[in-house]
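Duplicate of #3305? Posting structure anyway:
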C-alpha cells in the first residue's frame, strides 16, 4: 500500500488492484485508511487503535467500581422501598446493618469511580485518541451489554408479575429503580461504542 501511494498511484487504481488480488471491501477500506498520501511527501501511517495494559487495568477497576456502586445503590433503594411501601405478607423488620453497609460501600466506592472516570476521560480527551482506545471500547461494550441484559430481565419480571397478578406497588417501584439504573449506565457509556 505504501509503495503504491509513494509511486503516485491514485486510490481507485489501488482499490482495483487489491480487489483483483482477492481482498474484500472492508479489508481494502482498512488498508486505504491506514495510510495518508501527501503530495511531495512519502505516505505516512495514520494512528491505529491501541491496547494499553495500564489502561485495561484501570478500566477493569472502573468496571468493578461501577458494579459495586450499582449493586449497593439498588440494595439501598430496595430497602428504602420496602420501608416506604409496606407489604402485609412481609412482617420482617428492616435490616439496618445492611443499609449501613450499603451506605458505607457507596461512600467508599463513589469517589473512586468518579476520580477514575474523570481521569480516564481527561487523559483520552474527546477526539480521535478516545476512539482509538480499544480498552475503552471493550469496557463500554461490556457495560452496555450488561445494562441491556438487566433491562431485559427487568422487563420480563414486570410482564411475568403482571400476567400472574403479582405486580404489587412495591415490586413495580423496585423494577422502576432497576430500569432507571440500567438506563443511566447505558446512557453514560453509549457514546464510547463508536469507533
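Output from current build:
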Amino acid at each position: 500500500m505504501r509503495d503504491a501511494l509513494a509511486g503516485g498511484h491514485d486510490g481507485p487504481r489501488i482499490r482495483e488492484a487489491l480487489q483483483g488480488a482477492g481482498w474484500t471491501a472492508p479489508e481494502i477500506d482498512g488498508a486505504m485508511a491506514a495510510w495518508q498520501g501527501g503530495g511531495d511527501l512519502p505516505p505516512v501511517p495514520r494512528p491505529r487503535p491501541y491496547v494499553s495494559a495500564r489502561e485495561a487495568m484501570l478500566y477493569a477497576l472502573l468496571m468493578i467500581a461501577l458494579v459495586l456502586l450499582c449493586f449497593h445503590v439498588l440494595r439501598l433503594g430496595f430497602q428504602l422501598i420496602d420501608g416506604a411501601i409496606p407489604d402485609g405478607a412481609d412482617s420482617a423488620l428492616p435490616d439496618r446493618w445492611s443499609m449501613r453497609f450499603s451506605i458505607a460501600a457507596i461512600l467508599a466506592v463513589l469517589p473512586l469511580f468518579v476520580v477514575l472516570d474523570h481521569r480516564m476521560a481527561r487523559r483520552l480527551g474527546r477526539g480521535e485518541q478516545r476512539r482509538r482506545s480499544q480498552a475503552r471500547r471493550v469496557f463500554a461494550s461490556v457495560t452496555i451489554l450488561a445494562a441491556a441484559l438487566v433491562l431485559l430481565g427487568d422487563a420480563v419480571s414486570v410482564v411475568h408479575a403482571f400476567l400472574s397478578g403479582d405486580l404489587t406497588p412495591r415490586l413495580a417501584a423496585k423494577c422502576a429503580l432497576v430500569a432507571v439504573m440500567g438506563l443511566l449506565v447505558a446512557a453514560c457509556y453509549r457514546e464510547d461504542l463508536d469507533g
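Confirmed duplicate; merging threads. The beta strands are 35-38, 41-45. The CA atoms of residues 21 and 136 lie 35 Å apart.
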